[in-house]
Design a protein that fits this description.
By secondary structure, the chain is an alpha/beta fold. It has 13 helices and 21 strands. The protein is globular, with a radius of gyration of 22 Å. Bound molecules: S-adenosyl-L-homocysteine, iron/sulfur cluster and FE3-S4 cluster (F3S).
């Protein structure tokens, strides 16, 4: 039995893909190891979304070469988005034996079989219909409480800065029968939360079933199974989805709604198909139908041609909305994207960094304000396990996705507990049992 070690980088979709890969490999006699020192096969499931993500992987590939010295038969593989984007360049480096893109994982057993010293193997074909719908992922998360379920793959949006449509191909939705079956299976195995994953979940469509109907189907499985989802695109999030969320207690009240910029001029250049006004209107709708709904976002500072005025528009949108948390980046040009072909990357790095820092500083204050506003409230949380910082405390998230920590030695992972918020940081609610 050959042992396989996989490191996962990038988004939740990659985490789930690694679980699919382990399932495919297990069916061909491979076992999973979490110890790189024990492995016969060492692979990285990679991300290309920003240049520094790729630089990190190149560094890691160099480190893998040292392992080869003591283990001559070791097979080194690069999977995922960077495999798709850099294909031949990875092979030509002479440092890797396998290169497999996001739609090529079914061929991994054959690639592993064929790979040998001087015989690197590659498959980076993208597919129109691969969803791995029939494959039961081998859950690699350790808490045994929450699981990721991919409901679609690829992306058809072609936002001008983004490499994802090139690395993951065209959008396709997975058969809802297999999604519901997988969610049921998770529940039976003791999982109490599933997160439905897609680059743009609101465009889910399979034989006439849209995302709102899918959400309802998964929510119907059992009231004790929580349902989360990501990512919602502001252009597509529908009233129907918002009302469906309101209709089920077990659909968590949290929406990750990446805004990217607060300036209409920049949004247009990004090829995001909404305006600042549309975005703010969606936020108003969400807050009126779902009071207390958690709202988080992604933002890019210093996109091509961004002026101080554009940047101020982003800051003012952040203030207006008051997100709970945000993932904040400065623009990283990705070769081959529309922006790279059309617009010069003309905001100097020090300006990008300064603007990013201003957004981060503003958001830190807004996060603290948002978390403070919860002091005194009581939340039902799903216990995920012991807190990392303090073993006498448990942790788990409230419906709005905020992490709660409270002293508790009685309850177990997978149970629901009511807690009252007594204090907070800008990222955690400190609570006591109700
Ligand atoms: N499908 C999701 C985003 C996936 S990528 C959506 O549309 O919201 C995750 C985040 O990475 C994006 O929301 C964006 O904020 C950031 N990102 C993508 N491309 C980037 C780039 N070239 N430079 C900097 N950040 C980028
Ligand atoms: Fe990238 Fe836009 Fe697709 Fe998101 S919606 S993955 S940002 S192209
Ligand atoms: Fe990265 Fe690919 Fe996900 S580029 S963010 S791993 S879709």
């Amino acid at each position: 039995m050959k042992k396989v070690y996989i490191e996962t980088y990038g988004c939740q979709m990659n985490v789930n893909d690694t679980e699919v890969i382990f399932s495919i490999l297990a069916a061909h006699g491979y076992t999973r190891t979490t110890e790189i020192a024990d492995a016969d096969v060492v692979m990285a499931n990679t991300c290309s979304v920003r240049d520094n993500a790729e630089q990190r992987i190149w560094g890691r590939i160099d480190q893998f070469q040292y392992l080869r010295k003591s283990r001559p038969g070791l097979v080194i593989g690069i999977l995922g988005c960077m495999a798709e984007r850099l294909k031949d360049r990875l092979l030509e480096s002479g440092k890797v034996d396998i290169v497999a893109g996001p739609d090529a994982y079914r061929s991994l057993p054959a690639l592993l079989e064929a790979a040998g010293p001087g015989h690197p193997q590659i498959n980076v074909l993208l597919s129109r219909d691969e969803t791995y719908g029939d494959i039961a992922p081998v859950r690699t998360d350790t808490n045994g409480v929450s699981a990721f379920i991919s409901i679609m793959r690829g992306c058809n949006n072609v936002c001008s800065y983004c490499v994802v449509p090139y690395t993951r191909g065209a959008e396709r939705s997975r058969d809802y029968h297999s999604i519901v079956r997988e969610a049921c299976d998770c529940f039976e195995k003791g999982y109490r939360e599933v997160t439905l994953l897609g680059q743009n979940v609101d465009s889910y469509s399979y034989e006439g079933t849209g995302f709102a109907a899918l959400l309802a189907m998964v929510a119907e499985i059992d009231p004790a199974l929580r349902v989360r989802f990501a990512t919602s695109n502001p252009q597509d999030i529908s009233d129907e989805v918002i009302y469906t969320m309101a209709g089920y207690d077990n659909i968590c009240k949290h929406i990750h709604l990446p805004v990217q910029s607060g300036s209409n001029r920049i949004l247009e250049k990004m090829r995001r198909r909404y305006t600042r006004e549309w975005y703010l209107d969606r936020v108003r709708k969400i807050r009126s139908v779902l009071p207390g709904c958690g709202l988080t976002t992604d933002v890019i500072a210093g996109f091509c041609s961004e002026t101080e005025e554009d940047h101020r528009q982003t800051l003012s949108l952040f203030e207006k909305v008051g997100f709970d948390t945000a993932f904040m980046f400065y623009y990283s040009e990705r070769p081959g994207t529309l922006a790279a072909r059309k617009y010069p990357d003309d905001v100097p790095l020090e300006v990008k960094t300064r603007r990013l820092n201003e957004i981060i500083e503003l958001q830190n204050g807004l996060s603290l304000r948002s978390y403070r506003a919860d002091i005194g409230k009581t939340y039902r949380v799903l216990v995920e396990g012991p807190s990392k910082r303090d073993a006498s405390c448990l942790c788990g998230r409230a419906s709005n996705n905020k992490m709660c920590v409270w002293p508790d030695t009685e309850h177990k992972a997978g149970e629901y507990v009511d807690v009252t918020v007594t204090d907070c940081t800008s990222a955690t609610l400190l609570c006591k049992l109700k």
